[in-house]
Structures are given as structure tokens and as C-alpha cells.
Amino acid sequence: MAGCREVLTLRGMPSSPPRRAGTRRSPRAAAAPSARALPPAPVRPLTAPFAAVFGLLVAAEDLYLARLLEEPEPGRTWVGAALAALALVALAGSALVLLGRGRGWLVLTLATVPSVLLLLGVALLFGVLGDGGAVGWALLLLTGPVGCLVLAVRRPIREWTRPRRGIPPPATARPDRGRPRGR
């Protein structure tokens, strides 16, 4: 009859109440919470890809200026080489900022400042000479380096490319830590 009683209960549930398992307590004390909590994983700021694209624009403008300065006198290879090296630094800074590597904003800024100064000098020179069209083109070319400079020195980009210190792994508890030494 007892077997028949179990069959008549709701949907195959046993007639006796389920046993509740008590909370298991370990004989070992719980590990103390770490004083140094792991920092949250850094999230790339929305302006980082834009700063990288402006860095690519700076590199392209540097190569364009190198070609313009080399055209009248092909013998001046040092100017073209300097601007090509500046373009490589801008490319490296763009990659560092996009990937969030340490001091990427500084590399991008150091590649951008000479371009800003060069284009301001060109605009000033053509302004003194009275060529308004060339001044307009120089100022138009100035938007790339200025945009890169404005984005690269902002706080989110600086924090994104801040060098991260390695956090040592937590020390593992030795199994004989709580026991007395003598057996």
C-alpha cells in the first residue's frame, strides 16, 4: 500500500518531504579576502580609434610634405628622410594608442608636434609672401595634426595607454600552515 501511495502523489514526487542538505563547513578556515583587489580590466575609450586614425593622417601628411619638399631639388634627401622617420613614429604611435600599450599617447604626441610646427611655419611663410591660396591649403593640412594632438593628450587616452604594473599572483596557502610543526 505504501508503494501505491507514492504513485498517487503529484506527478511522481515522493510523499516524504525532501531532505535539505545542511551547509557544509570546512574544518579549514576560509581564506582572508585579499587586501589588493584586482583592478577592473581597462576598457578602450571611444576616442582611441579616432586618435589612431588621426595619427595615420599625420603620417600620410608627413609623407606628402616630404614629396613636396623633395620635388624642386631631388638632392635634399635629409629632409625627406626626416619626414619619413616622423611618419614612421606617427604610425607606431597610432598602433600603440589603438592597442593600449604603455606611453602610446606620448609617442603620438611627439610625432604630431613637429608636423604642427612645420605647417604653422609654412602658413606663416606663405602669409608673409601674400599667397592666400597656399595659406588656406596649409591651414587645411593643419587640421590632421591638430586633431591628433587634441585627441592624444586627453585623459581617457592617457589612462588607456598608461603602463600597467604587473600584479603578482596571490600566494597559495601551504597545506601545513595551520598545524603545529611537531608531530
Brief write-up:
With 183 residues, this protein is an all-alpha fold.
Alpha-carbon distance between the termini? 58 Å
Shape, per Cα inertia axes:
elongated
> What is the average per-residue confidence, as pLDDT, rounded to a whole number?
80
Strand content: under 5%
DSSP summary: helix tally: 7
How do the SSEs run, as a string of H and E?
HHHHHHH
Would you count the extended β strands for me?
A: 0
Structural category? mainly alpha
Low-confidence stretches: none
Could you please describe the fold and organization of this structure?
- The chain has 183 residues and is mainly α.
- The protein has 7 helices and no strands.
- The chain has a domain at 47-113 and 146-160.
- The protein is elongated.
Topology:
Blueprint: H1 2-7, H2 47-70, H3 77-99, H4 104-129, H5 132-141, H6 143-152, H7 155-160
Helix pairs in contact: 2-3, 2-4, 2-6, 3-4, 4-5, 4-6
